[in-house]
């Protein structure tokens, strides 16, 4: 069962994290167990405080939905041991003739090589001119010949030599000579006797018996009986060779499950092989891929919550299949290949929408989840002071709080006290809730810190400005804004770096020492962004 990732925006706030968790929980309760909550960035102190308070773990973090090898419907043929016989490999290839190659592994399961039917055929043709085998385990020989050893005193573990079918004594120029021979014969007592006298490496007796007197004290020759005729036995001997002797094992090209398909495709185009092994994080073989698998790769599936803007979403979103969008922001630039369900409502929190979806389906979230959702609504509406806040936000927050047995006022004070601290690095605070925008050829970033004492945070203005200056240079932005939103004063202390005229014209205020106060302004998306958009037409 492939997962469907429910994911919020980059630099996620509490609403984004909790929305992913709540919607995944809703779908799971409805029997759709493939939905998995995920996040794209660091968990803020505020969010972590709430997760700890209600007993939840942070969702898994994903960095991209770029298509990987693990997303392909690759082949999973048996991975054969390098000690397996050629006959066993051939049988494995015949099970599914559409699979061009099978992987060969060592005793630990790690990749050793690759073997195809064409390589077996090439080896088989070579045996006509080179009728030799070398260091073939006796077990392999007995397996393919369905044979047994007739002389108990045999101590040989491997056999080597030229394969010869014994002929009558009158054809001396074709008869074997010396130990480096594997002799095949039938009911030919003279040939059996001569083979034992020559102390050949191995004597194969086809469909015949041997005088027990000849076997006494024979230790140098391995004597094997087989039910097959000499011709078939001769061919089967070559198929007893371990596949490590003939498989492709030098300069192996292989891929990992986490490799990106784009990179794999580039490498495959430069190679002539028909099949490539795939290994996992432990270098164990898990399958094989061919060019066919790269034609229509299976995409990762995602549900987007609390955003619908490409710049704020997971990297390489274009390679994923978007299943749904649940959001409370303006419609932006994300496109889909197929029609999908989009739920976009003008409310102050994505969790307000999801709480309504619980209600529509006749489900009640658990006390812990209800408490977490209430906290997310309070956080995103700035204790219901945000201009984005609606009556529906208040009603849903009240309902969730009643289920969890909480006081929204006390919860709000806890949330905004936990989000700031004198000992935190300014970079951590600055980018905890940071978004970049592109409006009318202007590129800029806006951070927001919601707190109960903006004046206290303003004491670190120079530290904030230094971090903002560094970010401007690295990102190539035109300007950057930090919103120190005070929930008690219901306003925002603005720290600004860039052209002062932009802020002065947009908000009709005077900027002094890179700061100004905007009374009644608490929302980035509802008050800051629309005002800047109106300024630039």
Please describe what this structure looks like.
By secondary structure, the protein is of the alpha/beta class. Among the domains are: 4-65 and 300-418, inorganic pyrophosphatase (n-terminal core), CATH 3.90.1640.10; 426-535, Roll (Diaminopimelate Epimerase, Chain A, domain 1). 34% of the residues lie in helices and 22% in strands. The protein contains 18 helices and 23 strands. A six-stranded parallel sheet has the order 3-2-1-16-17-18. Strands 7-9-10-11-12-8 form a six-stranded mixed sheet, sandwiched between helices. Strand 19 (434-439) and strand 20 form a beta hairpin. Helix 1 packs parallel to helix 10 (350-360), helix 2 crosses helix 13 and helix 11 (367-380) packs across helix 13 (408-418). The relative contact order is 0.12.
Beta-strand residue percentage: 15-25%
* Alpha-carbon distance between the two ends: 48 Å
**How many strands appear in the DSSP assignment?**
23
Query: Treating each run of at least 4 consecutive H or I residues as one helix, how many helices?
Result: 18
Question: For the record, what CATH class of the domain at 4-65 and 300-418 applies?
Answer: Alpha Beta
**CATH architecture verdict of the domain at 4-65 and 300-418:** Alpha-Beta Complex
Shape: elongated
Low-confidence stretches: none
Could you give the order of strands across the largest sheet?
A: 3-2-1-16-17-18
Structural class: alpha/beta
* Major β-sheet annotation: 6 strands, parallel
Please estimate the helix content.
25-40%
Classify the fold: give the CATH topology of the domain at 4-65 and 300-418.
inorganic pyrophosphatase (n-terminal core)
User: CATH homologous superfamily of the domain at 4-65 and 300-418?
Assistant: inorganic pyrophosphatase (n-terminal core)
């Amino acid at each position: 069962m492939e997962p469907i990732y429910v994911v919020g925006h980059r630099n996620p706030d509490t609403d984004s994290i909790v929305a992913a968790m709540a919607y995944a929980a809703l779908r799971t309760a409805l029997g759709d167990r493939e939905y998995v909550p995920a996040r794209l960035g660091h968990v803020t102190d505020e969010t972590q405080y709430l997760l700890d308070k209600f007993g939840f773990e942070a969702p898994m973090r994903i960095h991209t939905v770029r298509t990987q090898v693990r997303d392909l419907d690759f082949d999973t043929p048996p991975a054969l041991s390098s000690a397996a016989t050629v006959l066993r490999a051939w049988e494995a290839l015949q099970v599914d003739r559409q699979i061009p190659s099978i992987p060969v592994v060592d005793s630990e399961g790690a990749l050793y090589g690759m073997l195809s039917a064409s390589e077996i055929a090439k080896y088989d043709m070579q045996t006509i001119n080179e009728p030799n085998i070398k260091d073939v385990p006796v077990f392999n020989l007995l397996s393919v010949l369905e044979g047994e050893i007739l002389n108990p005193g045999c101590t040989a573990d491997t056999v080597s030599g030229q394969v010869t079918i014994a002929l009558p004594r009158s054809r001396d120029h074709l008869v074997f000579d010396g130990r480096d021979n594997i002799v095949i014969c039938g009911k030919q007592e003279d040939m059996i006797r001569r083979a034992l006298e020559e102390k050949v490496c191995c004597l194969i007796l086809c469909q015949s018996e041997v005088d027990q007197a000849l076997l006494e004290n024979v230790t140098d020759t391995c004597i094997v009986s087989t039910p097959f005729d000499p011709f078939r036995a001769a061919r089967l001997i070559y198929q007893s060779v371990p596949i490590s002797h003939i498989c492709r094992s030098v300069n192996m090209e292989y891929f990992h499950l986490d490799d990106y398909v784009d990179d794999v495709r580039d490498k495959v185009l430069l190679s002539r092989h028909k099949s490539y092994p795939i290994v996992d994080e432990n270098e164990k073989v898990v399958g094989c891929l061919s060019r066919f698998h790269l034609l229509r790769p299976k995409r990762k599936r995602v549900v987007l919550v609390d955003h619908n803007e490409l710049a704020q979403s997971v990297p390489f979103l274009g390679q994923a299949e978007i299943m749904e969008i649940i959001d409370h922001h303006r419609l932006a630039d994300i496109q889909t290949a197929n029609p999908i369900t989009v739920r976009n409502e003008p409310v102050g929190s994505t969790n307000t929408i999801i709480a309504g979806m619980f209600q529509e389906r006749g489900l009640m979230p658990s006390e812990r989840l209800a408490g977490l959702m209430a906290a997310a609504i309070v956080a995103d509406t700035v204790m219901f002071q945000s201009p984005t806040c609606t009556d529906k936000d208040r009603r849903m927050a009240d309902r969730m709080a009643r289920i969890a047995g909480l006081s929204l006022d006390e919860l709000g004070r806890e949330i905004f006290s936990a989000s700031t601290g004198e000992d935190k690095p300014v970079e951590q605070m600055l980018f905890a809730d940071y978004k970049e925008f592109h409006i009318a050829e202007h590129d800029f970033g806006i951070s927001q810190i919601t707190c109960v004492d903006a004046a206290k945070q303003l004491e670190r203005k120079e530290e904030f400005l230094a971090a903002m200056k560094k970010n401007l240079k690295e990102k190539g932005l035109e300007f950057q804004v930090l919103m120190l939103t005070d929930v008690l004063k219901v306003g925002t202390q603005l720290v600004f770096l860039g052209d002062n005229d932009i802020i002065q014209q947009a908000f009709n205020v005077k900027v002094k020492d890179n700061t100004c106060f905007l009374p009644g302004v608490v929302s980035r998306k509802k008050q800051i962004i629309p005002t800047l958009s109106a300024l630039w037409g």
